[in-house]
Amino acid sequence: MFNWMAQVFSVTRFSMLSLPQRKGSSAAALLGIAGVVAVMVGVLSIAQGVMKTMESSAGDTNVIVLRSGADSEMMSGLGGDDTRIIAEAPGIARDASGPVSSPELFVVINLPMRSTGTDANVPLRGVQAQAQQVRDGFRLVEGRMFEWGLNEVIVGVGARQQFAGLEIGSSIEVGKERWPVVGVFEAAGGLSESEIWVDAAVLQPAYRRGNSYQAVYVKLNSRDAFGEFKDTLTSDPRLNVKAMRETDYYEAQSSTVTNLITGLGTLIAVIMGLGAIFGALNTMYTAVSARTREIATLRALGFRSGPVVISILSESLLLALAGGLIGAGLAWLAFDGYRAATLNWASFSAITFAFDVNLKLLVQGIIFAMVIGLIGGLLPAIRAARQPVAHALREL
Amino acid sequence: MTKINTNSTLVTVTGVDKVFKRGSEEIHVLGGLDLEIPDGEFLALMGPSGSGKSTLLNLVGGLDRPSEGKVEIGGKRIDKLSDRKLAAWRARHVGLVFQFYNLMPVLTAQKNVELPLLLTKLSRAERKKRAAIALDIVGLSHRTGHYPRQMSGGEQQRTGIARAIVTDPTLLLCDEPTGDLDRKSGDEILDLLQALNQEQGKTIIMVTHDIHAAARATRTLYLNKGQLSTEAVD
Ligand SMILES: Nc1ncnc2c1ncn2[C@@H]1O[C@H](COP(=O)(O)OP(=O)(O)OP(=O)(O)O)[C@@H](O)[C@H]1O
Ligand SMILES: [Mg+2]
Predict the structure, then answer these.
(1) B39-61+91-229 adopts what CATH topology?
(2) What are the pLDDT digits (tens) for A99-145?
(3) Domain segments of chain A: what residues?
(4) Cβ contact (<8 Å) for A6 and B104?
(5) Ranges of each domain in chain B
(6) Which residue has the higher pLDDT, A374 or A356?
(7) In terms of Cα–Cα distance, which of A320, A328, A321, A294 is closest to A308?
(8) With an 8 Å Cβ cutoff, is A390 touching chain B?
């Protein structure tokens, strides 16, 4: 056993020492693997980013109430009376102005994207004062809050970045009117940062909604209060609503997008990975045939084939590890925090998010690289080890 | 190796056939071959190209197995050993000298010679010492730190011989050791082999195409049509 390990060690050392002689093909394989890992991590970081945006919108005690049968705010509708009954349900957190329950109106308007100049949907949300209380981390970063009752809007930081004409001082067109932008807000990276907000009482007549809303956002006084809150609403004969934890709601909303991107990313990674495996295979076959004489001589001298296999595999794994680290590093430098917009498939409006290159993805990328290296090194290694010594010596 | 009897038989090859398959074609290289080599002999093996000289050398050195027949070295049958045991046996009993030296280009002469000792339990210091002695025997003690590419063909082959004798093997097998060298370097190698045979009693089998090289040996055998004979057949 000692002897065997010593053989592994010394044979591996030779292959590492002779690596500089095979710079060209080794570098090619390394860069190939780096490219695959960079693309894979980059694409999957989109899905991670969307998921993170959706999740950070939702606090643990936050609940959304929609008309039963509606899968999203877009399709929901609640009368003004309904929203008052909901606010009286048990378990809702209270502050100085009463229960933290926010009836909201949700419409979609068209604005030109900064990047392409083409129009895309932007959510325009009608809110009451409690809207700020049900969202974690709501904060004005520029300008001021709109005046209640006036045709003024505030915009989320994400929306301002993605769409043209949302700076303070400019205005948006709603029907025949123009509503000035007076402030910019953030909401802890959450979904509302992709939206434009206006007084619900201003939005209702503009869209002829009378005294109706679409959703009620509620903050509970504890996580456990959800059960009783929900039962009270669903058993109330005056109401026809359903209550969901926000976490569940957003998860359902984002699954289409994230599944699509994850699937696409995986597909791209697999296709590119196959290419990289052939690159690595080629490199290692070249490396092995360049060392045919060395390997045959070692085995003729009495070295066993196990150490030979391990030395070839370690060389290929080392190349893959270096490629994986470089690729992951590149992806992290290039993509992490990079902001972009995607379509919210539930509301068909844009949500902005940041690419999220996290540790889990980096590790996944490096593991993927190692798998490429393992497959690329295994066949040449087995071939080198299987060849009869006398036969290998003849091939010099 | 302590020698009990200088005239005892070291190598016994009995009724050996060797058949290679190339696709559906069968190539009969050796047929019913017998060979006895006494301990301490310096045997030259000659014969036309493709007659099977290297094949025979590989069988005696445990690098290959016969299709039929027995190979015994020092009273031990080696043709039935597993790959693993055969590799261990080679490491202990056989020194190989190749036509193209087969040194590791990334290692110095000293490290190349130490290579077979990695398969023993010797300490690092002991390995170093023995390699230095072997290099001294072949007259290369001044070039221990040189890499193969910094040495002439003759010096590389002397390093190859040092590597072959460093484990003090039972048998020294040389396949055309002077085949790639000029006359002068070739003669130096032959001087060295002769000295190893005469002064240290090493048993040597040397394959060669060169009649002058064969003249240094104590006996010459000719391989033709799968059989050995004491006279060249043309
Ligand atoms: N592994 C192998 N597979 C197929 N054929 C082989 C193999 N090894 C040897 N042969 C064949 O066996 C015959 C003898 O080969 P060998 O190398 O022993 O000849 P040789 O006498 O050493 O020739 P040379 O003087 O050219 O070195 C040749 O025809 C060769 O092609
Ligand atoms: Mg030959």
Answers:
(1) Rossmann fold (3.40.50)
(2) 999 999 999 998 988 888 888 889 999 999 999 988 878 999 999 99
(3) 2-55+253-393, 69-239
(4) no
(5) 39-61+91-229
(6) A374
(7) A294
(8) yes
